[in-house]
Specification:
This protein has 144 residues and is α+β, with helices and mostly antiparallel strands. It contains six helices and six strands; from the N terminus they run βαββββαβαααα. It is 47% helix and 24% strand.
Amino acid sequence: MRLLLKPPSGRDEVDSAAIALGWSLANVFPQREGRPRQVIYATAEGLITLVEDHRIDARYLVFSGHDPEGLAAQAREVVETLDEDAVLEILGREPARGLCWLGIVGASREASEKALRDALGGEAPELRAAARFAAEALGWEVEA
């Protein structure tokens, strides 16, 4: 379960949410060449990871545990997020960014899946790369 933070939200907003929701800082993994910076919080219900993804200019939360949807619902009450419909709007203005961000919010809408499949088979290298990133994040099988 992932939530895409609405720009310019980031670490400050998540730190405030952590205080409000009782999340404890558990670990920080610094940015490396192929891995974004990750700040991990713990609760009795599970783990919450803030990913500051420099590769796609996005900040998002990843929830794991026995009730990730419940943790995400709590977070949604205190941090601003973008859903799939909002990302589809961004896709119209900024195609590469929108495609990458679909990999975070999911591609449950027919329009999202079509946009990803069209870009994967398209001519524009930047859009193919963005769609590949999203498809891999969604767990799709992607040909090399």
